Amino acid sequence: MYDIIGDIHGHATQLENLLEKLGYVKDQNIYKHPDKRQAIFVGDFIDGGPQIRETLHLVKNMCDAGTAFAIMGNHEYNAICFHTAHTEREGFFRSHDLNEISQHIKTLEQFDHHKSEWEYFLEWFKTLPLFLEMDNFRVVHAYWNEDNIEWIKENYVGITPEFLSLATDAIHPSKVYDIIEETLKGKEITLPHGLSFQDKYGIYRNQCRVKWWMPMHERKTYEDILMHCPVELKTRNIDSIQTLPRYANTKPVFFGHYCLTEKPSIINKQAICVDYCLAKDGVLVACRIERVADGITTALIY
After folding, report:
1. Residues 217 and 101 both lie in one domain
2. Which residues pair with 292 in a beta bridge?
3. What domain range includes position 201?
């Protein structure tokens, strides 16, 4: 079966330690499992850690050898946009302002003397799928919405200039923009009454990501359902609980992205996050999947 591995963000040593804990063995610079298990990486390989090049080589070597799968994270998508010249105006598909550069700076620094190698990985990023759907489970980086996934299945043909023009236009957002933003970066709702919060980059935002994976019986106050919930909303009862995004399919979905800081646990066996903030001194987590007679079993390993 499979081992779903969370956001790595350039921490190759921690990744190797986790793979070895999971029983993978290094053979000719490629990690393989003696029982033919395969790893699935949920994206976000770059930006943040001290071993970004090493991480990319490790992950891609496994994918090329058939011992792993990988999907696109928002950081790989952002990198593509950052380095692709805009076809309709000056500049690039992602701004080169201070905020964007600061998010990407460690990757730029570590590839400073390896330009052709970085271009090689950028081309690989473009081939990564936006999600995986296996027989018994699904994998996405940030948010599985059935309508969004159906649109991607029917319309997405890869990273083209036409696609990037639509997917990056925040001034005149299209359906394509909304779908890609939600799939790779999460579902957001606008905060009421002019409230805002300061994100990890110091930017004030009036939209909050929704914990769409939370089971319905756990949704009581806004703190239960919003990431970085403003203090003014923490104890307020949710106004209209049925309208907030949720995952209702019986096929489990695995995802990363959210940099959870609590002790790793499975609070909803149908929607399991494997990102426990390794980028901010947290832990790298894997969810081990085993096949049983009536479906699958899951366990977090870290």
Report:
1. no
2. 295
3. 188-244
Report the domain count for the chain.
2
Tell whether 42 and 120 lie within a shared domain: yes
- The per-residue pLDDT for range 193-244, each reduced to its tens digit, is 778 877 766 777 788 999 999 999 999 999 999 998 888 888 988 876 557 8
pLDDT for residue 293 is more than 80: no
E strand spans, the chain: 2-5, 25-27, 30-32, 38-41, 68-70, 131-133, 138-140, 188-190, 197-198, 204-205, 207-209, 253-255, 271-273, 275-276, 283-284, 286-292, 295-301
Could you tell me where the DSSP H helices lie in 111-216? Answer: 115-127, 146-155, 161-167, 175-185
Domain boundary among 208, 223, 244: 244
Q: What would the pLDDT profile of 52-86 be if each residue is shown by its tens digit?
A: 999 999 999 999 999 999 999 999 999 999 999 99
Q: Which helix (H) or strand (E) holds 54?
A: helix 52-65
d(CA 175, CA 268): 29
